[in-house]
């Protein structure tokens, strides 16, 4: 079998454009997922029973169903209900954000529960409300502890974002498919796609390692 390096060189700019779209989808999805996850994670710890149950139902449903099915629900099923077509980009970001939010919620919940209960009691004894204690005392400490799992979630979403190619959105995987359909260079293109994904995940892993070292918590203090 002949390995066509020229095909890789010619296709690389297009694949890099697709990689840029992949990073954009991932960054937006995880950013929205952080907001969703933070509130849902705190709702999971709420003493208000309906709030706690609704948060648990959301997390269990999203974590218990494949992201691909969630994308189909947003892009194909939801327009039937609302009577209006949804843009592929909006559908991709919405599905990935909702999916990420469920996993981030559990990360936040675990992070908050890892903080000594005395911290909350100390904040309340100083006259701070529950919300103020969470904002100024609990969450800053919890955030430092959840940096590694948040990094893992970013990497997982980076790879899972390839699923949005099924609705025709041209991220990295879809760009690879289109190039292969035109050139029939399956081996060269898929190896290139795999290399770009590997490069992105390694970069994120190194960044997470740096942040973890920078904000490392010394439990003795």
UniProtKB/TrEMBL annotation:
<dbReference type="InterPro" id="IPR000515">
    <property type="entry name" value="MetI-like"/>
</dbReference>
<feature type="transmembrane region" description="Helical">
    <location>
        <begin position="12"/>
        <end position="41"/>
    </location>
</feature>
<dbReference type="Pfam" id="PF00528">
    <property type="entry name" value="BPD_transp_1"/>
</dbReference>
<keyword id="KW-0813">Transport</keyword>
<dbReference type="InterPro" id="IPR043429">
    <property type="entry name" value="ArtM/GltK/GlnP/TcyL/YhdX-like"/>
</dbReference>
<dbReference type="InterPro" id="IPR035906">
    <property type="entry name" value="MetI-like_sf"/>
</dbReference>
<keyword id="KW-1133">Transmembrane helix</keyword>
<feature type="domain" description="ABC transmembrane type-1">
    <location>
        <begin position="19"/>
        <end position="208"/>
    </location>
</feature>
<feature type="transmembrane region" description="Helical">
    <location>
        <begin position="53"/>
        <end position="78"/>
    </location>
</feature>
<keyword id="KW-0812">Transmembrane</keyword>
<keyword id="KW-0029">Amino-acid transport</keyword>
<keyword id="KW-0472">Membrane</keyword>
<keyword id="KW-1003">Cell membrane</keyword>
<comment type="similarity">
    <text>Belongs to the binding-protein-dependent transport system permease family. HisMQ subfamily.</text>
</comment>
<feature type="transmembrane region" description="Helical">
    <location>
        <begin position="189"/>
        <end position="208"/>
    </location>
</feature>
<dbReference type="InterPro" id="IPR010065">
    <property type="entry name" value="AA_ABC_transptr_permease_3TM"/>
</dbReference>
<protein>
    <submittedName>
        <fullName>Glutamine transport system permease protein GlnP</fullName>
    </submittedName>
</protein>
């Amino acid at each position: 079998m002949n390995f066509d390096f020229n095909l890789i060189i010619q296709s690389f700019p297009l694949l890099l454009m697709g990689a840029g779209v992949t990073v954009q989808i991932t960054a937006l999805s995880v950013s929205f997922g952080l907001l969703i996850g933070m509130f849902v994670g705190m709702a999971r710890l709420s003493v208000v029973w309906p709030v706690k149950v609704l948060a648990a139902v959301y997390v269990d449903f999203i974590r218990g169903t494949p992201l691909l099915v969630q994308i189909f629900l947003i892009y194909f099923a939801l327009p039937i209900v609302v009577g209006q077509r949804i843009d592929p980009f909006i559908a991709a970001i919405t599905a990935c954000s909702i999916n990420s939010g469920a996993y981030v919620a559990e990360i936040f919940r675990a992070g908050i529960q890892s903080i000594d209960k005395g911290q909350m009691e100390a904040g309340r004894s100083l006259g701070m409300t529950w919300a103020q204690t969470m904002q100024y005392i609990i969450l800053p400490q919890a955030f430092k502890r959840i940096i590694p799992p948040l990094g893992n979630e970013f990497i997982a979403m980076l790879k899972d974002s390839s699923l949005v190619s099924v609705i025709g959105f041209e991220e990295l995987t879809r760009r690879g498919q289109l190039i292969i359909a035109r050139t029939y260079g399956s081996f060269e293109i898929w190896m290139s796609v795999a290399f770009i994904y590997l490069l992105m995940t390694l970069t994120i892993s190194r960044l997470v390692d740096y942040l973890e070292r920078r904000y490392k918590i010394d439990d003795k203090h």
